[in-house]
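#structure-requests
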Amino acid sequence: MTIGARIKQRRLEIEMSVEQLAEILGKNRATVYRYENGDIENLPTSILEPIAKALHTTPAYLMGYEENLEGSADFITEILKDRILLEHIHILMALNNRKKQSVYDMIDFLSKEKGP
């Protein structure tokens, strides 16, 4: 499921209209439809966070992280055992959104790179 599909699903779950969400976000209806249809890919956190707040959920849910982690205690345990990873998570959390996005972009780039 895409971010847009999760936005729409959550909006419908809480019985919120597109117009209501658009008003809360200070956007027009067409923009909200573009979010839901996936016409705007890679929503920045500056947009994702207000959408999540308006929909009474989290950015992690909208991005699909929470449903991917459900029932995955082994994954969480693995993270907690990796001190270097935890130290870097703490550093990442202290960065501003622009710098965080740069880190995310680099991770995406490296994960798509072929070879060792």
